[in-house]
Automatic annotation (TrEMBL):
Protein name according to UniProt: Menorin-like domain-containing protein
Pfam families tied to this protein: Menorin_N
Domain of life where this protein originates: Eukaryota
Residue intervals of the Menorin-like domain: 13-269
Family: Belongs to the menorin family.
GO cellular component: extracellular space
Length: 294
């Protein structure tokens, strides 16, 4: 979305929102804050600042595993973004959202008080991301973040948006695989068992492009299971070399609706989707609502 687009336009077409990834060092954060990018995604690990040469203070830092050192802490990261957002708050097109990606429950639990004390989640979009369940395709190499502990900690952050997904295995040579009904039902059960339906947090489900293209029916089931208690959206993501059936992915996006689907994929894939062609979006959206009662 360009800086001339309106806030209303952003809400009706989430696919226009732009992203910066792995903003895990101070210089990169400076560049992103000076850019038109609208959402800042970054990784949080437990580790050490580079100037802590004796490694005496393990704290939440901006780093993607296996890295355990960074030149910026989570506290400084959030403080800088909050200062920037407050400076531009009168121009909604310049305010930036934050997506905090946690790869371990220890990093998340150790970050709760820092997030509460260093950021204004009630004013500025704040997403808390973690893969909390095992998912496709036969992914046993990545251990999910403990769902019960994740939700217990997340409740201390109030109405932050929960970006909760499945571990996945995919790549250039994959063509078959999907989010199964069993995996979807496990996610709905986890949300309900931990009281997130009653808490009413917005939920966005990060779904891998090549897999979700084969999973329209399952995703309708997921949406229908939680739409009455939570504001449900989807965030389509993809690694650079992932195999993706573009037409099937486009069908998924238009079925779910442009107002319910963030698209965080490489530029070449984004262009192939031709998401500016919105002729069928309203029809598909009505179909999505209707399918919940089939």
């Amino acid at each position: 979305m360009s800086t001339t687009s309106s806030v209303a336009d952003a809400k009706t077409n989430l696919t226009k929102i732009t992203w910066a990834h792995a903003v895990n060092d101070a210089e990169f954060l400076t560049r992103v804050l000076a850019s038109d990018t609208q959402f800042i995604e970054a990784d949080i690990s437990l580790g050490y600042l580079k100037d802590d040469v004796n490694k005496e203070h393990e704290i939440p830092i901006m780093a993607h595993p296996p890295a355990t050192e960074s030149d910026i802490s989570l506290e400084t990261f959030l403080t800088r973004i909050l200062q920037y957002n407050r400076q531009v708050a009168n121009d909604a097109t310049k305010v930036k959202g934050v997506k905090l990606d946690f790869k371990s429950i220890g990093a998340f639990e150790g970050s709760i008080n820092i997030i509460r004390n260093s950021y204004d989640m009630s004013t500025f979009d704040t997403w808390i991301n973690a893969d909390i369940l095992p998912g496709p395709v036969d992914n046993t190499a990545t251990i999910p973040v403990d769902a019960t502990r994740f939700f217990a900690a997340a409740k201390r952050l109030g109405k932050a948006t929960l970006s909760i997904g499945w571990t996945t295995r995919w790549g250039a040579d994959f063509a078959e695989g999907l989010y199964t009904e069993a995996q979807v039902d496990a996610m709905v059960s986890a949300v309900r068992a931990n009281g997130i339906d009653k808490a009413g947090n917005p939920i966005t489900f990060p779904v891998r492009a090549g897999i979700v293209a084969n999973s329209v029916t399952s995703m309708i089931r997921l949406y229908c299971g939680l739409k009455d208690t939570n504001d449900v959206t989807f965030t389509v993501w993809s690694s650079a070399d992932d195999a993706v059936n573009v037409e099937k992915l486009r069908e998924f996006i238009f079925t779910m609706g442009l107002d319910r689907t963030y698209v965080d994929v490489p530029d070449d894939l984004h262009r192939k989707l031709h998401l500016e062609e919105t002729a069928f979006s309203n029809t598909c959206k009505k179909m999505l609502q209707a399918r919940c009662y089939e």
